[in-house]
Specification:
The chain is of the alpha/beta class. 25% of the residues lie in helices and 20% in strands. A 4-stranded mixed beta sheet has the order 1-5-4-3, with no helix packed on it. The protein has a two-stranded parallel ribbon with strand order 2-6. The chain is globular. The termini are far apart.
Length: 123
């Protein structure tokens, strides 16, 4: 399959995909997820309706794929945020980019669910 990112442990660029949970509005419309994170947590399968009731699938590979149930501490760990912060404090350039179309889950990926962020015990 296709996909992004280098597979080397020392690669300068790592690509991590986080699948967000369906929104309340999506669930109310009866929508279901078309994405499936592989058991290896490095592959992502996309399943879409095809002709005559068939299902078309395609698999992509990344440095890591995170499920909707992945916790924020797990996201930070899998994305190497702590290592990047340490490097930045030592004077090295470090960047984290959340990329995607409007409503795709960038804010969710960086900070989690808003109702959790607003809690006083949020870490």
């Amino acid at each position: 399959g296709g996909g992004g990112g280098s597979k080397g442990a020392g690669a300068a660029v790592k690509v991590v995909v986080r699948v967000r949970p369906l929104s309340t509005a999506e669930l109310a419309r009866g929508e279901s997820s078309m994405l499936e994170v592989g058991e290896d947590q490095r592959s992502l399968s996309v399943h879409v309706p095809g002709p005559r009731g068939s299902v078309l699938s395609r698999q992509f590979h990344f440095n890591a794929c995170l499920t909707p149930t992945t916790t924020q501490p797990e996201v930070m760990s899998k994305c190497g945020v702590h290592r990047l912060l340490d490097s930045a404090l030592k004077g090295y350039a470090s960047t984290i980019i959340a990329y995607g179309q409007t409503g795709s889950g960038k804010t969710f990926s960086m900070s989690g669910r808003e109702e959790v962020i607003e809690r006083k015990d949020y870490q």
